[in-house]
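Our platform keeps sequence and structure together, in a single record for each protein. Such a record has a labelled line for the sequence and another for the backbone structure tokens. The tokens are whole numbers drawn from a learned vocabulary of local backbone shapes. The remainder of this section carries one protein's record, kept here as part of the documentation:
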Amino acid sequence: MQATLQAVWHWRGETPVVKLHPGRDCVHFYGSLNLLTGAEIVTRTTVMKAETTALHIQQVLAANPDQPVLMLIDRAPWHLGPAIDALLAANPQLELMYFPTAAPELNPQEHVWKAARDNVSHNHLVAKLGQLATDFENYLKSTKFASPLLANHDYQRICAMCK
């Protein structure tokens, strides 16, 4: 509920007031961007851990049945662990390729998060976390996100590196 502040228009001589919720409630999102279609697969959760990462990846696999899935993923601690190892062992059509450490500019999902914050949570007026989370999730699911990753880098070369 901590609104990200940015420039706003306001009456001259008056300081704008943005009310912030003092609570510590939180919600987390997993997101996977299909680089070919721009569609986003979203999972809302209360905790980030390997088991919930595995559940999200299972959603990605279910959305892409009978085809190989190359997932580009960052090195967050909850993206690693026995649950992920078991998922990889059970799904030979899935391959994970990790981004270099401290390189968020390479991760197309980071651009999706920024767009969602810009459009949903910057200077928001929503008073309840549940409604804000629903708005955030709806925006992610209903928007097609362009990603220059495949255009800027040789798609065939990226795929060949994973073999």
